[in-house]
Specification:
- The complex is a heterodimer of chains A (828) and B (298).
- Chain A is mainly α and 828 residues long.
- Chain A has helices spanning 22-49, 53-65, 74-101, 106-112, 119-136, 141-151, 158-172, 190-213, 220-229, 231-243, 249-267, 270-283, 286-291, 293-301, 309-330, 336-359, 366-383, 389-406, 412-429, 432-435, 439-446, 450-466, 474-488, 497-500, 504-515, 526-541, 548-570, 584-598, 603-619, 623-640, 644-660, 666-681, 686-699, 708-725, 728-748, 755-771, 784-802, 809-818.
- In chain A, helix 8 (190-213) packs parallel to helix 11 (249-267), helix 27 (548-570) runs parallel beside helix 29 and helix 29 packs antiparallel against helix 30.
- The longest helix of chain A is centred in the N-terminal third of the chain and has 28 residues, at 22-49.
- Chain B has 298 residues and is an all-beta fold.
- Classes of the chains: A mainly alpha (828), B mainly beta (298).
- The interface between A and B is medium-sized, with 26 and 23 residues.
Chain lengths: 828, 298
């Protein structure tokens, strides 16, 4: 008999092992099938070694019989298919050698393989032999391809059919008649190849859709999954078409695409259509898409009523946007038609997006519309990177969205998408400032709810820092602040604080972010800058009591900086530059006024800022302002600093600042000093009093208010007196403290400080340390830190004594003076 | 002397050029399971050759007559065995004589009309054979039969229309099948297609089988015996409406016999193409369609 075997399907008995999970079951079936394949493949190859083609075909048919199974999921079936595929290549090579090298009659083999009784093995064998048949050129490739694709109709089972046709595609793809290849001409033309591929494609699509139709609702999810696993098999057809050299842009537009689109539209299956449109986008070159855009978009309109056009549109737009970017960068191309098509792309898409919304109001949600517009906007901006077109297209896009959204209820997803949409210009421009030129952006923001605006505001604020650019005009500043309003100011009907901010820290961070903006403001024109700062001050000032402690201090600082700049400018180091009209005084006053507003909310911070005002005022030679600022600071000290620890710390600052303000007139400086000495003596703790008194001594050493007597008064009369009132345990430290101040003044040349003073003090300290502890036995003195302090001080003195510059008389004289001090280190 | 016997061996003159084939055996045949290789003749051939008679035991064998008969025999196994010798020709090779060692006799039947083909069916058998009979005095005759096979080529019928038919079950399954011819020679290819007009059942597969049906008896007493000669799967999986499934069946691969009609008015053998659809529950839907098979080549 000539027949090649009529194998029956082996049925796996699922009841045999009821405990197997579906996965284990698949594993088992797959293993069984794989073993069969291996065994028969081995026999096949052995027969081939013995040059017995008939037997080889018989075993091959048995092997292929395993592909008749219905037990495997597509994924597992795919693995089996791959294995079988490899084995079939062995057979194909053998037949090819027989035919091409040894002159066997390929037509005969082509007939013999069709004796196989089962359709699936028969068709795999037919395709394998057909592949050789084409290669042998014994018949035109066109005819063989046609025969193969027709015969494949014998397999109507979706999975098996898809794999069979996928095998056909894979075997045929390098044997298709194509422009200039070996099969072109007698074997057919590229048109035949297109017909062939499209016929196979149509059938595959039909099989694939059928997977969905059959079966019950229960395991729909599983089927969907299985189905999606097979999509790549279908997409491969389009890839084959795209790989044909003969399919140029012209042929694609006139022939291929219309037919492919027709197939897609006709298949009427929602999922398939979406996937296939995506496949088309992926498979063909972007130039082709650009040239055939109207055709493609028109076809989209004819898709299933529930088709998600948004996904298709955005995918295409994203791709073309990338292409346009690359194309614009290359610029080497002289392809004028692409250039023209590129220009028209935006309008085309815009039109079809509108059409999609109009014709499919129910399936096109707000969110989809916004996403499409977002892709469109990105594309438009890439296509028109230069002004003024850039703003024009962006504004147009924005106004479309405004128009669309203002009349609709926006679902949460749409709001999220809108947030992304609004940020596109900034991302594309890489600039917040340039984005501010978009008139329509503000219009869009108006229709958005508070939370979204706030989110956008934060993004913009971060953008300013991310792109690191300066806000250089009042208009820009105004625009940015308008944008930031939801963060900077309270608004009627805004959600409660707890809803907006997870914690106080989050709130503060946000305020911190926005307040930093003033540092980004810049202008060479100081008058303009003043206006910008004033504007910021005004806007931040409306922020309410929770915000201003965070937002206003930076404003104060920039005002102070500006005041100094104004002062510099008015002194006219550069006569050619026009002097600013704003007086430094005005800036100082603004700063001071701002602080007044803050006074109640953050006294300590305000106090410190007043000190800054005072320093700045001094630099601007505004004595009155400086004095006022100091007065304000002291007032705050008296009224609001109540904690003793804070008092001593703040007092240190006050003393230091005042000392820096020595350029003030005696009339101003004197009262400040006397106030400070008073504060010093009013401190709660003796130790603090003592230290403060020491510090006050320096106030009287500042030029031009130098008074050696006052210094000694502070150091000796006051400080030492306070030490007397202290506990003995503290004596040692305090003496050391006073000693160091004495040494400072001794070094500074205060003639009232004598070697005798120092020696006496040294002696007292030494005896204190030698005692090892205070007189009170109950409180042993931890003398280690004191000892270290003392040793360091002694070392300092000794260094001074040895300091002898060879050519400096002063140094020699100084060293002589220091040598009077009896400085001896403690024995260790 | 009583046991002295002879061997008879029949040879054909043109044995070296004559085609031989392995004769198919009918299922019921009790003879050796191996196919016998037989010489092939066709109607109009001259059947000639030699009959060799040899004495087996070495002692001479006497005979009264040696005769060679050419017999075409039709056997129908039924309730009762019915044997018809539709052909019977006889040649006297020698009258009385003795074979001491070997004796050769030529025989020749010139241009014999062999009306029917050799056939080995389920109940009907057509056999052709040469029978040499050596009659002996006071002993059983020695008889030797030499079977040969007969095939006859038929001319192609002038009328050979295709088969096209719409069949189905109402509101359940409608299909149209189409075969390119109604008469096929034995190495022909059946080209056709099955077009589904309506599919409401879950078809799992479809196959085409060739059925041989023997009809025996005459008048009112006739019997049918069917045998599936070959099965050929043409579709796997469920088709949908509008699907068209191609059929291409190479008959050369199948063990077929031509259609025989009214052989001696005792039997007919017909061939049918049976289109079978099998559904998910293994129910079978089928439609048989007779095809006429004929022999084009030997």
């Amino acid at each position: 008999s000539n027949s090649i075997g009529n194998s029956e399907i082996r049925l796996g008995n699922t009841m045999e092992n009821p405990r197997l999970t579906p996965e284990e079951e698949q594993e088992k079936f797959s293993q069984e099938a794989m073993n069969q394949v291996k065994g028969n493949a081995f026999q096949m190859k052995r027969s081939l070694d013995q040059n017995d083609l008939r037997d080889a075909l018989r075993f091959c048919a048995l092997m292929l019989g395993e592909l008749r199974t219905s037990l495997l999921t597509p994924r597992v079936y795919y693995n089996l298919y791959l294995r079988v595929f490899d084995e079939l290549q062995v057979l194909e090579r053998y037949i090819a050698d027989e035919v091409i090298l040894r002159g066997a009659n390929v037509q005969e083999i082509y007939e013999v393989v069709q004796y196989a009784g089962n359709v699936v093995p028969r068709l795999y064998l037919l395709i394998t032999t057909g592949s050789v048949y084409i290669k042998s050129k014994a018949a035109p490739a066109r005819d063989i391809l046609k025969d193969l694709v027709e015969m494949c109709k014998g397999v109507q089972h979706p999975t098996r059919g898809l794999f069979l046709r996928s095998y056909l595609m894979r075997m045929a793809k390098d044997k298709l008649p194509d422009a200039g290849n070996e099969f072109d001409g007698v074997g057919g033309s590229v048109h035949d190849s297109i017909d062939f591929v499209l016929q196979n494609f149509t059938e595959m699509v039909r099989l694939w859709i059928r997977m969905e139709v059959k079966g019950n609702v229960r395991d729909r999810e599983r089927r969907e999954k299985e189905r999606s696993e097979l999509t790549m098999l279908i997409g491969a057809c389009l890839k084959v078409l795209s790989d044909l050299k003969g399919v140029d842009r012209g042929l694609y537009g006139q022939n291929v695409l219309p037919r492919v689109l027709d197939i897609v539209v006709q298949c009427k299956d929602l999922l398939a259509q979406q996937y296939l449109m995506d496949c088309i986008i992926m498979a063909f070159p972007d130039e082709y898409h650009i040239a055939t855009l109207p055709l493609f978009l028109e076809a989209c309109m004819q898709l299933h009523g529930s088709a998600n056009l948004e996904v298709i549109f955005t995918r295409l737009m994203d791709r073309l946007t990338n292409f346009a970017t690359g194309w614009a960068e290359a610029k080497s191309s002289t392809d004028s038609s692409t250039e023209k098509d590129l220009r028209g792309m935006t309008e085309l898409f815009s039109g079809y997006i509108g059409k999609a919304c109009a014709e499919r109001p129910r399936t096109t949600t707000c969110s989809m519309f916004v996403r499409m517009q977002a892709a469109l906007l990105k594309m438009a901006l890439r296509l028109h990177p230069a002004e003024p077109q850039r703003s024009a297209v962006a504004n147009q896009c924005l106004s479309t969205v405004v128009e669309y959204c203002s009349s609709r209820a926006l679902e949460p997803q749409a709001l999220k998408d809108l947030t992304q949409f609004v940020l596109i210009p900034m991302e594309q421009y890489q600039s917040v400032v340039e984005t501010s030129q978009l008139a329509k952006l503000a219009e869009l923001l108006v229709i958005l709810p508070f939370t979204i605006r706030r989110e956008i505001a934060l993004e913009f604020a971060q953008g300013v820092f991310r792109f690191g650019h300066r806000l250089e005009s009042l208009d820009v500043v105004k625009w940015v602040f308008r944008l930031l309003a939801p963060v900077i100011q309270e608004e009627d009907g805004q959600p409660p604080f707890e809803q907006l901010y997870p914690s106080q820290a989050a709130f503060e961070e946000e305020q911190f972010l926005t307040s930093r903006l003033v540092h980004q403001m810049y202008s060479a024109d100081l008058d303009a800058l003043f206006k910008m700062f004033s504007f910021a001050r005004k806007e931040f000032g409306r922020g309410g009591t929770s915000r201003i402690p965070h937002t206003l201090p930076p404003v104060v600082m920039v005002f102070l900086r500006l005041a100094c700049q104004l002062h510099e400018a008015s002194r006219g180091t550069d006569p050619s530059a026009a002097a600013p009209t704003t007086a430094p005084l005005k800036a100082l006053n603004y700063a001071a006024e701002t602080l007044q507003a803050l006074r109640e909310h953050a006294p300590e911070a305000v106090l410190k800022l007043f000190l800054q005002v005072a320093l700045a005022a001094q630099r601007c030679q505004q004595e009155g302002q400086a004095y006022d600022a100091m007065t304000q600071a002291m007032l705050l000290y008296e009224e609001r600093i109540t904690d003793s620890r804070a008092q001593s710390q703040v007092l240190t600052l006050l003393i230091a600042t005042t000392q820096s303000l020595a350029s003030l007139s005696e009339g101003s400086y004197g009262p400040l000093c006397s106030n400070l000495t008073k504060y010093a003596s009013n401190l709660l703790k003796k130790v603090e009093q003592c230290e403060a008194a020491c510090m006050c001594s320096h106030l009287y050493w500042a030029e031009p208010h130098r008074s050696p007597d006052e210094v000694m008064n502070c150091l000796l009369s006051k400080s030492l007196k306070i030490v007397d009132g202290c506990m003995p345990a503290q004596h040692c430290n305090l003496f050391l403290w006073i000693l160091n101040h004495l040494l400072y003044h001794f070094h500074a040349g205060n003639e009232k400080v004598t070697v005798k003073h120092i020696n006496v003090l040294l002696e007292v300290i030494q005896s204190n340390i030698n005692k090892g502890h205070g007189p009170d036995e109950d409180q042993p003195l931890d003398s280690a830190p004191a000892k270290m302090f003392f040793q360091n001080t002694i070392r300092y003195i000794q260094r001074r004594q040895q300091l002898q510059g060879p050519d400096s008389n002063v140094a020699v004289a100084d060293a002589e003076r220091w040598k009077g001090i009896a400085a001896t280190l403690l024995p260790t | 002397m009583f046991f002295a016997s002879a061997d008879i061996n029949v040879t054909f003159n043109d044995a070296h050029i004559r085609k031989r084939l392995a004769a198919p055996r009918s299922k019921g045949s009790t003879s050796s399971s191996e196919a016998t290789v037989l010489y092939l003749f066709t109607s109009g051939d001259s059947i000639s050759g030699q009959v060799l008679v040899s004495a087996t035991s070495g002692s001479p064998v006497k005979y009264t007559e040696i005769r060679c008969d050419l017999i075409g025999r039709l056997t129908v196994e039924g309730d009762s065995k019915d044997i018809v010798d539709f052909l019977s020709m006889s040649k006297l090779l020698d009258s009385a004589g003795t074979v001491s060692e070997v004796k050769a006799f030529d025989y020749c039947f010139g241009s014999v009309d062999l009306p029917y083909e050799s056939y080995s069916g389920i109940t009907a058998t057509v056999r052709y054979f040469l029978r040499v009979t050596m009659k002996r005095p006071y002993a059983f005759s020695v008889v030797e039969e030499q079977e040969f096979w007969v095939q006859n080529v038929t001319d192609e019928s002038e009328v050979n229309t295709g088969i096209k038919m719409e069949v189905g079950i109402e509101d359940c399954l409608h299909l149209e099948f189409e075969y390119n011819k109604s008469k096929y020679h034995l190495t022909d290819v059946i080209i056709g297609k099955i077009y589904f007009l309506l599919v409401k059942i879950k078809v799992r597969r479809m196959e085409l089988s060739v059925i041989r049906r023997e009809t025996t008896g005459c008048g009112l007493n006739w019997y049918n015996d069917s045998e599936t000669v070959a099965k050929f799967e043409i579709m796997d999986g469920p088709p949908v409406k509008g699907e068209s499934i191609p059929v291409r069946l190479f008959l050369g691969a199948l063990p077929l016999t031509p259609t025989y009609l009214h052989v001696c008015d005792k039997f007919s053998t017909r061939n049918f193409l049976n289109l079978v659809l099998i559904d998910e529950d293994d129910r079978r839907y089928y439609k048989q369609q007779e095809i006429h098979l004929w022999r084009r080549h030997l």
